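Give me the fold.
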Amino acid sequence: MPNPTRFLFIFGAGALLAFSAWWYWSPEPSPWAVDPDEVALPSPGWRPAVHLHDVVRSLPADDDRAGLSAFTAAAGPSFAQAYVEDILAIGPADDPATAAGLRTFASHPSIAGSLTAADTTSGDPDRLRAAEQIIEDAFRRLHAHFPDIDPPQLIWMHSGFNHAVYPTDSTLAVGLEWFLGPDHPIVSSLSPSAFPSYLRDRMDPERMAAEAVRGWLVVYFSKTLYQPETCADALLFWGKVLFLVDQILPTLPNPIWFDWSSEEWAWAQANERAVWLEMSQQDVLFDANAVAFSRWFTEGPFTRAAAIPQESPDRLGAYLGWRIVSDYAEQNVSMSLPELLRFDDSGQILSAYRK
């Protein structure tokens, strides 16, 4: 059983100074660095983003069949079905009446307001172009390391506050309403029970590209890598995926792609050893109770595991996994990223961690 008295909260002025030094320090280029401009994508190459939120609110009111056809053509048959049947749950993808449901959705006062708000925040054309460029560059880097992975079709959408990111193998849909800005009146009006403060704080349009890329990678690689029989398995899955995120989003500060504030990142760095002392105990690291060990990886206001205090950020298990895999990778730079992701000797990876 973890000893609560062993966990020391050491974050203070010294940690702030260390974080400031880290923030402005330019690290050496990664051995896996890729210039996205030199990556040739297979035909048809990178396809410009689909602005589905604009398509939905401009459907013709006098011809449901034509409206549904226009919507399906813009979204693509597969995502069109996912959008109306799964994301919004408003009707069958092949029923013309669903077009009327889409118009009703877009004209609902709560949705129409957030669509208008997105035009000047997360949906601002300049902001969307910048985010799309970051996402495109990330997938070009990914394709350089994983030639069998073709970039997905990027789709900007309004999900009805159901999904910030909705990834499939061939599409990456982003709910613009999730990135209006934490201080936006619409975000402030959301139900605290459904959208607690930590979640609203993360509705920052600057996080949009990073959250989209990370979400797609987690879903894509979970199909082959996520077999969490123990806490250590989950630790290394998250570590590998986040290390990959780090490699293909090299221009973004770590707190951004991790979805933390700079203060949360500094806390994790300052308390890393103490957190590891809690997690590295045999009955914790090799716990096979998924309900128990998932607390290390679950989104929330803080990490609800062991003796970790409420001042902590959430998902400290994922952070430790990234640190551990990063140390192993730095000691094995001859490995390709696909080799690193496939490598499953957890003992070797864990032993490389510079605690």
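Residues 37-219 form one domain.
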